[in-house]
Structures
1.
Amino acid sequence: MKSMVWFVAIAVTLIVGGCSTKSEDAHESAKAATVSEVGVGPIQRVELGALDVALAKKGAVIFEQKCSACHKLDSRYVGPALQGVTQRRKPEWIMNMILNPAEMLEKDPTAKELLATYLTPMTFQNVSHDQARALLEYFRQVDGAVH
Amino acid sequence: MKWSQLLTIVVAAAIVSVTVQSCKNGGSATAFAGDDAAKAVYVQPGKHDEFYLFTSGGFSGHVGVYGLPSGRLFRVIPVFSVDAERGYGFTEETKPMLQTSYGFIPWDDAHHPELSMTDGKPDGRWLFINANNTPRIARIDLRTFRTAEIIEIPNSGGNHSSPFCTENTEYVVAGTRFSVPPGGQDVPIASYKEHFKGMLSFVRVEPTSGKMELAFQIQAPPFDWDLSHSGKGPSREWSFFSCYNSEQATTLLEVNASQKDKDFILAVNWKKAEEYAKQGKGKRMKATYYTNRYDESTHTATSTVNNEVTVLDPKDCPGMMYLMPCPKSPHGVDIDPTGEYIVGGGKLATVIPVYSFSKMQRAIADNAFEGEIAGIPVIKYEACIAGEVQKPGLGPLHTEFDGKGYAYTSMFISSEIVKWKLGTWEVVDRVPTYYSIGHLCIPGGDSKQPWGKYVIALNKITKDRYLPTGPELTQSAQLYSIEGDKMRLLLDFPTVGEPHYAQACPAELLEKNVVRTFKLDENKHPYAVKAEKETRVERKGNQVHIYMTMIRSHFMPDNIEGIKVGDEVYFHVTNLEQDWDIPHGFAVLGAQNAEMLIMPGETQTLKWVPTRAGVYPFYCTDFCSALHQEMQGYVRVSASSSSVPISYGSGTK
């Protein structure tokens, strides 16, 4: 019986030990994400030029099809209102959030905060890289970008 | 008391109770592999099984999908029976799947799952399964794990020797167990020998799409065509059918169909039959039968009615088929991986007869016949037999193979699996099953390439193996290791419905092809809406069509008014999600059919006929997000005389 107590005690120690290692890992990655404002995902850098009106128009159509069930521009819906998003976030962050929402919600501190506020997780809507770029252009246009 | 002490006591108590429990079930000690068994079947949380196992649901009409070695149940695929949980057979889109020439049939008895093959090996594309009661064959698409097609088999009654496929899935077969008068003739039962036929159907499978069509039927004598398998390698152009009731009894078959010492295994040269059909040797016969196909882009099934079938008479088609005498009321007919040996499961026989394909060919060339039945030559038993397994046990039914030179036969009466050696026919091992095994399954065990790691016993009786649940007990299967010389029992696991037969294949064959979502862009459903802006409600006479969307976590529209008593309301609901594992459910108060589970990108329709005025809530049934409880709405139903106009929207304004 006594040896069993020891066994349990050791097992508990091991489990607790395992947990602390894991939380350190999580902390590490959180720290890494904080340094970067581009978020987590395939987009490292976006070159912005003068507003591409044709591209923004494409983006508006995609917004209607893939985003509007959860986002409005001027008011909260399932997710946050998107007016002003290009002023709040880096373009890379916006595209990563569209293209890689699951990992963003796990690792990016801003995205995690948003989930805590809105509770419904942002979902991947089968958006291609080009479509995400068009959406970004549409958001820029909404926010009054000219160049 | 310290918590660690408490924990210790709990652990100790658990161990004691497990020990006591296993002492109670001591009867299985001889076969059970002991402590190693737990390790052999344990799949760590989050890890995947090595094999998929597809069990027929028997009289549930469904197919069960399990993992091996864990025996964990992943999914129940509705095939021949309606499934209120998903709406299969209840939604407007899936109702046509169960249409037949007898009308809408909500249930059947599904027996033999059969994986499609390329070069005699499972290729992981489709799973076929037969309906025994109202004769049909279904094809399940193994990318979606859904029933994609069901074809009805005419001139048939009891589609049991089905749907075993040929080496490259050129055909799946459908031999009738209960012979019937073709064309639905109204004749005295006593005219059996004259009017009844045992139709064998060959259903062609289109190689890329998998679409099935009834190529031809062969009019065989009115015996009970029980089971089948097609050849492979040298025997690839042949299909084999076992039969009982060569006595041609119509009453008390238990006695009257067990009179003769030998019945038959029928060898059909399907390649030759195909040629005869092409040459026009067959008769075109009137026959009404349905083909029901589910279109993945419109998310809708459609039924086609066929009116004719080509029937070949063996009398007009020399060299197309031969009978081989087989003791006694044989059940299974199974071909070894080389395609040379044909094993008969002589259900009431004291031996297992094994035929040689090459000897059979020589016998045909030498005219080594002992007679002829209905234009079919009967080969002399000695001229085609390769050997007999002596004293294998009682009630041999089915045989599968491990690819290492051994065969495994299920013994129903003596409730055991018997392992014997091909070529020497000696029994090398036997292991009890609990209880009364029917079919057995080795992954790929009826193909050219068995993965000879396990054999699964598919049992008919469960008795004392599990906690009792009243008069009706769980159905069950058992997993045995066959890697060593001795078979070792590893695991009992309960199954949904009767696990009549099962097939298994490596998970990697299927996993890579699995569909995760339906692309919204490719949704061609006529009532699909792809953006909330397009949602609407339209009245057409007394029909009201609601074009609705769902996404985490709301419906659009979710407030609807202007429905009247007497209206037929159609909820056409599109799931806008494009993420894996985010189905939404739809249920509305008073619906007399079912709920719908709608996969990402899919559109499904529920018909709803409210019978009294009131306000009816509807809601999402499949927990989808933290705000799932909020995923709800209202439909107002007014009296038939009311003038409330159609209006709809969401509560945001």
Note: The interface with chain A takes residues 4-5, 7-8, 11-12, 517, 519-521, 530-533, 549, 551-554, 556, 576-579, 582, 625-627, 652 of chain B (CB under 8 Å).
2.
Amino acid sequence: MKGPASGLIILFFFFLWAGSVPAQGSADLGEASVRFRSVQADFVQEKHLRILARPIVSRGRFVFQAPGNLRWEYQIPLQSILLMHEGRVRKFTGHNGRLVEEKGLRPDAMQVVLGEISNWLDGRFSDNAAFATEFRDAQTIVLTPKKEGLRSFISSIELKLADKAGLLDSVTLFEGPESYTLISFTNRALNKEIPATVFTSP
Amino acid sequence: MKPSLFCLSATLFFLVSCATESRQHLPDLAPAGDREGSQACTDFFPSGKWQFVHSIVFTTKDGTGSTVIGVTSLNGTTIASALVTVEGMTLFAAEYRDDNSFEIQRAVPPFDRPGFATGLIQDVRAVFQPSAGSAIRAGKLADGTPVCRYTAADGRVTDIVTGAEACLQVKSYSSDQVLVRSIVGKSCRKIGSTLIPEYVELKTFGHSAYTLKMTLIRADQIQGGLQ
């Protein structure tokens, strides 16, 4: 389905920043990005909607290893695992206690995502084709989509940088008035060796 | 050519047979003699202000499908509904009013298709609201199953089966009395005076049939006002 697949694109943008953002401005990016072979973290995701009295809270873990290996896993409230390995993207969702692979992910959308990942890991940050970048302060970067297609999904992304260079405290994705998703990262680890099966098996 | 004619006839017969088999019609209802049952029918529908969050597995006839998170907010005179990906992206959001008007706040492809918003509210209302403005008749099916039958002015019929093994069972028929939607709720728990099913399976019938398997993540009875 085009919609959910496009949502996955945004998810990957989250991930990209978590793995490759420098602490101070775009000038440091090339140096910072070179250091990252892998990054992993736990995350808490809060989905806020105008109609919701309380946000929907999800928890999970993501693992990334260059070049282009990703595991983005939700553990609660429902199990969902997105795997990316050697250009192949698969998604599994928990049904009745077992993981079932979802069909219908659009490979063209995924190729866009892979291209973006490569760009960012190569340190090509400020000339990103997808977003205009604003360094609001030492801790905050705001990304605004350049293209109308992406703007229909998201109005802006706010990145809060951690003290340690290259890591993020949180990402907030704004869709519109009173509708946003906040992802906060904890237990972050850089450059650990990760077995390939993490990206191939749910 | 005779073989071709035979094949064509056989194919048509097969297709007609299949079509006939797949269509279920409104069963006869014997009067129950009182209206006590109709009161019990409304126990399955939440009254007042509620918010529900479900995981929804959407499956079409060809087996393709996806999982989304569904948000339903009941506010007396309005119903707000949203579909969100597991990753947090809002795919669709709309608010529906009692006069059948609605406002779409967000709809990304393919949820911007004409008719999607209307179809969604029909499903949402079927799960969360008794049929408004309908004549109610309590009765029993041929096998003795007690039923509350709501008949709308345009001839559409909704049967709510009470005393069934499932804690919520609703069947909706078109004005020509063909089954168009069935809902089965299981593992009900009582919140206040309302029975809330932990699991709901909604099936539609016809050429664009689909199934929604809804697992309750959260049910909140809202004491204050909703926005």
Note: Chain B is about 20% helix and 45% strand.
